[in-house]
Amino acid sequence: MKTVKVYGPGCKRCAATEDMVKDAAARLGIAVEVEKVSDPRAIAMAGVMSTPGISIDGKLVHAGGLPDQTKLEGWLSA
């Protein structure tokens, strides 16, 4: 199971990113545990300078704007 963290203050883009992660994982048949991180200090500590951000198994893979669907699927498959 992959651990995915979605970093953001709770805006619509952050919620959309969380939904994109869940949908992509379901399509790929990958089990994921998605955690939403909205604490500003935790976001900064993770190195996210622009939200939404995504980390997969502790590695920051995206920050700022909605992720590209193809890239998201690649990150989840890796």
TrEMBL record:
Pfam families: Thioredoxin_3. InterPro entries: Thioredoxin-like_fold (IPR012336), Thioredoxin-like_sf (IPR036249), THIRX-like_proc (IPR005243). It comes from the Bacteria. Residues 3-76 form the Thioredoxin-like fold domain. PANTHER family: THIOREDOXIN. NCBIfam families: redox_disulf_2. This is Thioredoxin family protein. It comes from Thioclava arctica.
